[in-house]
Specification:
The chain is α/β, with parallel strands linked by helices and 513 residues long. It has 15 helices and 20 strands. Strands 1, 2, 9, 10, 11, 12 and 20 form a seven-stranded mixed sheet that branches. A seven-stranded mixed sheet has the order 7-6-15-16-17-14-18. The chain has a two-stranded antiparallel ribbon with strand order 3-4. The longest helix has 19 residues.
Amino acid sequence: MKAYKENFDAIIIGSGIGGLVTASQLASKGAKVLVLEKYIIPGGSGGSFKRKGYTFDVGASMIFGFGEKGYTNLLTRALRDVKEKCETIPDPVQLEYHLPNDFSISVDREYEKFISKLSDRFPKEKEGIKRFYGTCKKVFNCLDSMPLLSIEDPSYLFKVFFKAPLSCLGLARWLPINAGDVARKFIKDSELLKFIDIECFCWSVMPALKTPMINAGMVFTDRHAGGINYPKGGVGRIAEKLVNGIENFGGKIRYRANVTEILLKDEKAFGVKLSNGEKIYADIVVSNSTRWDTFGLNNNKGLIKRDYVPKSEYKWSKTYKPSPSFVSIHLGVAGELIDKNFNCHHIIVEDWEELENEKGVIFISIPTLLDPSLAPDGKHIIHAFTPSSISEWDGISREEYHSKKENYYSFLIKHISKIIPKLDQNIDHKEIGTPRTHRKFLGRFEGSYGPIPNKKLLGLLPMPFNTTNIENLYCVGDSCFPGQGLNAVAFSGYACAHKIGSKLKINDSKLPD
């Protein structure tokens, strides 16, 4: 078998945002890094692809982490650390909700405007609304006032505590708490509690009772503080810029490089093996695959041979399960179909009881309202998706598969047409993706968006960190603390790089500015 002659300080498997932030942070500290990506473009679900003059985002177009102040603007900071920057376009509205009982509301960038509109809908809960979202703001202020990049390094935590002791203590208080428990402390109205469920579900794929309060505090406040800012040129520009930064700092990235095995000796990781038989060696190996794909949990087809999988990973797989995947459609449509004052992001829920079920929610993004350059002149992009499980798509014939795709497509068009009339008559281009598509091209177990708890847990406390029980092997991404979302996996990338940097003795002794 071929062996790659060059040795590296760290090999990162996968070029999702978590993996790229890990690699870029290590490269900026002087480490020799190699990113291996089995597909032809970087970014994973944070990437973009092109068709017929359109630039489509693979996943969500609603991006946090591009603020300019504080410590929670992790995408801005990660790019800056490798001398890169994304031009962004501010979105005046995070989301417009279309909910049961003729309940529609937009979440404006201006905090007081949103709180006022929600209070008008639920006048008896005005005080409870202020107290719940005010508590979210307190959590955010703790996060935003300290450079918290690693939870696993006691000496680093001591420095952070010395810099911001009250924020540290305030944050620790919320680690075992979920957003739903806080909401129920202040709010009684059942419809308003359902609204807070969809507020959480739209980014965590979980209702409020299962969503950690720290994550909720971050999202519900950062959308008003740092704001929702779309990267000009598409979400894939984030990954492209990070790759540029990695390469400019001496790192390397290889595409069509499919890792099939993490090499172990004396129960220590020391390299990887590719599908072509090639072996590449490094002091550190980082997996940006899901923990299911890394350790073969549930299917025994992981990157680690079964005999070496730590018992702690099986325990994790009993605590968490894969969230549903999605059926997604990417459309190119006539420009005159959409008014210029239409909001970019929408969510449709027609039955609260179906919220967590197949087709229970429809997410819609029209990123060309922010960046017209993503489409040919006179055209718009509509990207819509609805939850769907892999069990709906496996074990069916090719004919059944294509028929089901068209059924889901018709379902989405029908419901989107309620807010964008005459849609079906004005489609220039269409793409349909299923959980099988996401599994194949994104390399994600069951095409899942990420892990969700099997039952209600104590906030973020059960989430695993980057270190594994295999020496020199680390994990990064949404299977690690603090979970799903580009800003969250960027945090996991920072934390992973810090932990590895401590091992390699390349970390700066000073706290980040």
